[in-house]
From TrEMBL:
GO cellular component, one term: plasma membrane
Superkingdom: Eukaryota
GO molecular function, one term: G protein-coupled receptor activity
Membership in a protein family: Belongs to the G-protein coupled receptor 1 family.
Subcellular location: Cell membrane; Membrane
Domain G-protein coupled receptors family 1 profile residue range list: 67-313
UniProt main location, coarse: membrane
Designated name of the protein: Olfactory receptor
Length: 353
């Protein structure tokens, strides 16, 4: 972020020169047309499959909400899970819900529409929240890796280092960095003149695709965007790589019953990191060249990854599964008590003369 701020400060004079050269009589684009998941040669096939896609993505989105909110509710309701790891995990689940919600509901609704459009302000809003949630999740994944590093490499100091204040600070930092990252991406994009083509070849407004539609040379903006997003992603990925390498080496040097649990936890964390960073790295490695697989990868990290995260963390976690079973029992008992109370009240009313 410091590097991005430096680039931003150095290029402000050049960018101001660009804006002074903008044509003053351009008719500003008020909306963008989203191509969606299809390409031109697929339109006829997609038309017949739209009802299936609507049901498919609706079920996936409902599963995302259910799975991630279930993790949050389980962590809140179970005192045994009031630990730094599960505190960070519940926040990851909340960000996953946000990441899947910035574009997925509109994508589902657009499957039933012939013309898929979004207003200019709506498009900028999508870009803003995409980078807020994606940037925040990157930082949160680093925080989770730091938590595992302290737990495995410095277990005697774990309670002291990973205090409630430290965990809260890490979560707040992830949101603040995500917001700053997003603002740095949108700082000059919102004022670009869009006066010509307005067709975005995706199912949501992605910054590289939108910048290409501007009526001026956006070379400097492209460099800034690459520097900002690339530096943040690479820094997060390198920190994660170093952390998990040190942790794996430490685990290999010890042979005990606890290492099996540590390996299972690490496997879950590394899998989530790979699923999140893999598509992002591929898409943003060539951000201004559009490949057909980009749409698949965009769906993957906005729809599939938020669903896979709760599955990965719960299937390999006995504590979480046990807590969910306990929560299920509590909910069933509460429902039975409510039904019993209702039955008793009904019988009491019927017995009155």
């Amino acid at each position: 972020l410091l590097h991005s701020c430096t680039i931003l400060c150095l290029t402000i004079p050049q960018l101001m020169d660009i804006y002074h050269t903008f044509p003053q009589n351009n008719s500003r684009v008020t909306e963008f047309v989203l191509v969606g998941l299809s390409t031109s040669w697929e339109l006829q096939i997609i038309f017949f499959l739209q009802p299936f896609y609507f049901l498919f993505f609706t079920m996936f989105y409902m599963a995302i909400l259910l799975g991630n909110f279930l993790i949050v509710l389980t962590v809140i309701s179970e005192p045994a899970l009031h630990t730094p790891m599960y505190f960070l995990l519940s926040n990851l689940s909340f960000i996953d819900v946000c990441l899947s919600s910035f574009a997925t509901p509109k994508m589902i609704a657009d499957l039933l529409l012939e013309r898929k459009s979004i207003s200019f302000n709506g498009c900028m809003t999508q870009i803003f929240f995409l980078h807020v949630f994606a940037g925040g999740e990157m930082v949160l994944l680093v925080a989770m890796a730091y938590d595992r590093y302290v737990a495995i490499c410095k277990p005697l100091h774990y309670a002291t280092i990973m205090s409630l204040q430290k965990c809260t600070g890490l979560v707040v930092a992830s949101w603040v960095i995500g917001i700053l990252h997003s603002l740095s991406q949108l700082a000059f994009t919102v004022n670009l003149p869009f006066c010509g083509p307005n067709e975005v070849d995706s199912f949501f407004c992605d910054l590289p695709l939108v910048i290409k539609l501007a009526c001026v040379d956006t070379y400097i903006l492209e460099i800034m965007m690459l520097s900002d997003s690339g530096l943040m992603a690479m820094t997060s990925f390198i920190l994660l790589l170093i952390s998990y390498t040190v942790i794996l080496v430490t685990v290999q040097q010890h042979s005990s019953a606890g290492t099996a649990k540590a390996r299972a936890t690490l496997t879950a964390h590394i899998t989530v990191v790979a699923l999140f960073f893999g598509p992002c790295i591929f898409i943003y490695a060539w951000p201004f060249k559009n490949f057909p697989v980009d749409k698949v990868l965009s769906v993957f990290y906005t729809v599939f990854t938020p669903l896979l995260n709760p599955i990965i963390y719960t299937l390999r976690n006995k504590e979480m599964k046990s807590a969910m079973q306990k929560l299920k029992g509590q909910l069933m008992n509460s429902r039975q008590l409510s039904q019993l109370s209702l039955t008793m009240r009904t019988d009491h009313l019927l017995m009155k003369p």
